[in-house]
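Deliverable D2.4 — example input (structure tokens):
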């Protein structure tokens, strides 16, 4: 029986589209605000300025989000490349799945090592969105991790 990859941070890559979408929508707010301000009436100038401020804050957030996500991806990729990571291998126990409503923490245990991860919105490492039912109690798994970040997940094929 061999292991098969169900998640590898280097194969998934950097999730650039999330901050890009925020950037696009924030840019639309700036453009809409500019259009409203050019109407000329004082009421519209104030409303347009409000749109532009919201858009500018969104642009700043998108840039910070982009940089933060890239830094997380780069750090994870470097940890794998330099073998600056650990491996837990064994049967998954104490698995607590994400509830149907989301917004919680999934967790599992392999041997003595306990792992926790959330929904992962904006995360490049393993999270509940990547699980897709691969991890559950009783499955034989190999998890490569650095600190609290799960970098690779392999499941033993029957």
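Example output (designed residues):
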């Amino acid at each position: 029986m061999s292991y098969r990859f169900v998640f590898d941070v280097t194969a998934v890559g950097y999730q650039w589209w999330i901050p890009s979408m925020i950037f696009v929508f924030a840019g639309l707010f700036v453009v809409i605000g500019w259009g409203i301000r050019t109407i000329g009436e004082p009421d519209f100038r104030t409303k347009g300025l409000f749109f532009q401020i919201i858009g500018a804050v969104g642009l700043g957030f998108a840039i910070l989000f982009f940089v933060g996500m890239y830094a997380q991806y780069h750090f994870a990729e470097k940890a794998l490349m330099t073998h600056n990571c650990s491996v837990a291998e064994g049967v998954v126990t104490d698995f607590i799945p994400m509830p149907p409503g989301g917004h919680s923490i999934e967790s599992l245990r392999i041997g003595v090592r306990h792992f926790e991860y959330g929904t992962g919105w904006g995360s490049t490492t393993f999270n509940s969105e990547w699980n897709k039912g691969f991890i559950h109690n009783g499955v034989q798994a190999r998890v490569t991790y650095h600190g609290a970040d799960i970098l690779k997940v392999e499941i033993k094929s029957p």
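Residues 97 and 106 are 5 Å apart (CA to CA).
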